[in-house]
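User: Show me a protein chain along with its predicted structure.
Assistant: Here is one chain, sequence first, then structure tokens.
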Amino acid sequence: MSEIQVLLVAGTHGNEINPIWLFEQWEKSAVLINTYGIATHKVIGNPKAYKSAKRYIHSDLNRSFIKELFSKTNHSNFEIRRAADLFQIYGVSGEKPCHIALDFHTTTSSMGSCLVVYGRRASDLALASLVQSKLGLPIYLHESDHAQTGFLVEAWKCGLVIEIGPVGQGLFNSRIISQTKLVLESCLEQIKLVENNNVFFPDKLIVHRHIKSIDFPRDYKGFINGYVHPLRQSKDWHPLNINDELFLMPDGKTIKFEEKETFRPVFINEAAYMEKNIAMSLTKREVWEFKSEWKKALFDLVQK
């Protein structure tokens, strides 16, 4: 059995039930998932929200991994207590220390299967490059958004979010479950190849770098008074250019995109992001040369 320990999380949001179902079936049949000999610890991130068929109880668990709050063990916020417990058990100095965290989500947006990387940690970029090379998944590089922090994977030395969609909240979908299984096994396979020093890194990494998020049109009272234009709906990853249709108003007026740069929108009309005042996030597609320090960081972590 491998010495590397990998934390696998499903149900960080309680109404994203497909990864949870896969984990539950895995509990019943150990051969359901090929772990390639990698030691794994699988957990339901927010079991209380899952039982309540909610995204969360008090606040978003995937914004609650703020270590400064972990010492407040009597915190009234359930998600902050849960984040502290998970880190105490599976953190680098925990009872069952894990080196890598893989956090499985679903989205209502037409994102397909993709990886989310937070910031530019070398080990994250190295692992993401391996999975992208194997499966061709797009990578959303989330950075420079100070309003969005406290993500689960940031609390570990290496971590990726896996987003798969589209699927409605609280709905089972066989394709989503199959894609989750495929990406899970592919991640573990690549980690094993790194451990065995039998891996080939790509020359380039394609990322969609987060630039900013934009809100829906709103009236003077702050209420949403327009929706994503039909020509923009389900066009995640597609180029968005000046004068392209963006939002449609009740009177039929079209709000068009006004910026001169080309962007690639993601998480278009994501149901969970309405409360965050996000209609979509805008990214720039970039091709990066693979850096040797990324490889070294992942090797140092896995082969320690």
